[in-house]
Amino acid sequence: MKNILPAVVVLCRMVKIEHSVFALPFAYLGAFVAAGGWPGWQPFALLTIAMVAVRSFAMACNRLVDLPYDRENPRTKGRPLVTGEITPAQTRLFLLATALVFVAACAGLNRLCLLLAPVALALSVLYSYTKRFTWLCHFVLGLVIGLAPSAGWIAVQPSYSMPPALWSLGVLFWVAGFDLLYACQDVEFDRRMGLHSLPAALGIPVTLAVSTFSHVTAALFFLLAGWGAFLAWPYFAAWGLCTVLLLWEHTLVKADDLSRLTLAFFTLNGVIAMVLFAGALWSLLQA
Hints:
The protein is built from 15 helices and no strands. The model has no long low-confidence stretch (mean pLDDT 90). By secondary structure, the chain is mostly helical. It has a single domain, classed as UbiA prenyltransferase (Tetracycline Repressor, domain 2).
């Protein structure tokens, strides 16, 4: 037990468990809107377990696949797999455990969730390899995390409709937009290693423009999703605040100044996810 607990702590640090704040609020948004309010303790708990498990699976897979590159990148040399705090064998066991937990949680939700579970796992693995062959890797990451609103929806209502699709498209462009910003700090490394990121392919100024376009597109999809779901004014108030935050985010990062990237990448985007969910929840309470 003494050896297991430290390993679990390091594994959680490796997969950055705190970054669940990006996808989880959108999964809850989908679930609450599909249910028209509180979805019940069982769906809520199983959805939470499934989301944390699949995100941990995806991150651990990415860390394992990128290990040869992380060893060479000065920015990533402190990661647990690189330092040896966690071994590749332990990471593979973690991958197996999180995949099994995810599938079990999906089975507890409904048959459709169970049938789609392998698709979510396959997409999570695919993303880890996309940087080897396409600069669209940022949008593949957006696609993977963009499953969150749809996952929350079908966890409660095993059918599909336009609102979760629009929220998923919004999350796709939202995530791609801030991942493009994050990728700017590795532009020289990616070029040297032959990795395909948009900053490496087209340069930082073009990347910043594409990121801005992606976030404008995301805001439009979030707006259309709220209309499609017939949400009340609190959602649109939250949407307005999130749109302002997204625009502000792009004033923080310049082609010649990436010093405020942490604020733009983690803090603001975590707030955006929670504010939009809070707006949807308040809107449902108005009904």
